[in-house]
Structure to design on (450 residues):
């Protein structure tokens, strides 16, 4: 395997593989290095797929073992920033692989970065909790740490007051990127509930290896890791993708995909597939923006647009768009396909002369695509309220110019629930049940911004 050693802003690094258009930044964990075994395995898997991998040593690790700078979060964030700035000069398609502490540094340093895919192994996602745990285990009080600034624990791990303050002042509150996580059930550093909370908050894919540890090092663990990498990459990156308009022959399949994607998500069962069924014949439906996404000639998702309008205080109307349903089959989610479908549709909408899109949805799914709170654009419902779930995207900057606008939704969304029930009764039976996402939907849909 071809490797090239180099130094980036004083940081020893390795680029694995021949020149390629795509690259993964690899960030190692504590007591590891840029040439760690998992990074080597990762590079071996990625190079045949047309990627290079860039790994580097964090302070006090690898070639920097005697670095006078301690491996604090502040130093780590600075180093990761230097690395990605270098990578941007030679690659446009950038992804991330990070382990343990390296994942935590990445969550802080790269929260605004355009990363195509993120793969985390045993990630630290709640550093404050880990520090608090260590302080409890070794009977170190906050007052002691604040007074002494640095405390060496019996296991040799150092606790720093400035590190602790930085962690508390910089919570992980943004991570809108396709992310998959591999976690060991016997991880003794990161509790499973913290990982589950993170995956729910940021819509990540999670794989748990039974009997896996925080540090994947045994043959069984490394084999599992290797297979996991193959599933996350080979199944998603080497396939032919195509976005096109929906055809009549696609109708039944698209409705089935919509049903599968939304089933039990917002309520027990769903009605979105019936909405798709009736939407196509409505006067507000836009067949030009009725799109499907294919992988290897197989439809995996769709997006549908309808015309709607805004009216300002003078009564002037503005024709705009809304979309929905938009969905990706569950097995293809969190791999960037939804992003690609939406971005493509935005370009098509601009080409058709539209300037604004208003939608209702979970902000976590759409703010990374340029949507903002309706209140920031002074767009209300007829009753004058600003729903938290209502978001606006300007396809033409500043086109709404600060005026107060009232949003009028297309009547196509006024679903006859009894008709939807009858329609669903003619399809394959599926179990209706409760799941936590329904409560999240209820909260989001009822929330009003004051």
């Amino acid at each position: 395997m071809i490797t090239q050693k180099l130094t980036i802003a004083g940081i020893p690094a390795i680029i694995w593989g021949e020149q390629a258009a795509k690259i993964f930044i690899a960030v190692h964990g504590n007591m590891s290095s840029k040439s760690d075994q998992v990074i080597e395995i990762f590079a071996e898997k990625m190079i045949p797929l047309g990627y290079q991998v860039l790994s580097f040593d964090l302070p006090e690790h690898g070639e920097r073992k005697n670095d006078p700078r301690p491996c604090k979060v502040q130093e780590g964030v600075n180093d990761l920033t230097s690395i990605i700035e270098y990578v941007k000069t030679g690659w446009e398609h950038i992804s991330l692989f990070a382990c343990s502490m390296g994942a935590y540094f990445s969550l802080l340093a790269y929260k605004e970065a355009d990363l195509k895919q993120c793969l985390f192994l045993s990630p630290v996602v709640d550093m404050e909790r880990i520090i608090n745990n260590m302080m409890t285990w070794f009977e170190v009080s906050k007052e002691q740490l604040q007074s002494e600034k640095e405390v060496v624990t019996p296991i040799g791990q150092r606790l720093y007051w400035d590190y602790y303050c930085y962690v508390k002042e910089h919570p992980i509150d943004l991570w809108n990127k396709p992310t998959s996580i591999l976690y060991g059930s016997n991880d003794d550093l990161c509790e499973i509930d913290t990982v589950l909370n993170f995956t729910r908050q940021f819509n990540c894919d999670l794989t748990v290896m039974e009997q896996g540890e925080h540090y994947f090092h045994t043959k069984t663990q490394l084999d599992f890791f290797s297979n996991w990498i193959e599933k996350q990459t080979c199944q998603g990156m080497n396939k032919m993708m195509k976005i096109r308009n929906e055809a009549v022959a696609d109708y039944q399949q698209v409705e089935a995909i919509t049903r599968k994607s939304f089933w039990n998500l917002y309520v027990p069962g769903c009605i979105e597939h019936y909405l798709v069924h009736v939407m196509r014949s409505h006067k507000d439906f836009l067949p030009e923006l009725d799109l499907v996404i294919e992988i290897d000639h197989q439809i995996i998702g769709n997006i549908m647009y309808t015309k709607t309008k805004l009216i300002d205080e003078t009564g002037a109307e503005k024709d705009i768009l809304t979309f929905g349903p938009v969905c990706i089959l569950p097995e293809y989610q969190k791999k960037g396909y939804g992003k690609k479908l939406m971005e493509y549709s935005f370009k098509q909408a601009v080409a058709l002369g539209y300037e604004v899109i208003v939608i209702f949805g979970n902000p976590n799914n759409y703010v990374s695509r340029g949507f903002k709170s309706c209140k920031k654009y002074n767009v209300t419902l007829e009753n004058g309220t600003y729903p938290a779930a209502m978001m606006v995207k300007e396809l033409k900057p500043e086109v709404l110019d600060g005026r107060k606008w009232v949003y009028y939704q297309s009547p196509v969304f006024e679903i006859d629930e009894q008709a939807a029930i009858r329609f669903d009764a003619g399809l394959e039976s599926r179990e209706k049940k409760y799941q936590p996402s329904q409560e999240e939907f209820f909260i989001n849909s009822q929330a009003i911004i004051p």
Remarks:
- The first helix runs from residue 37 to 46.
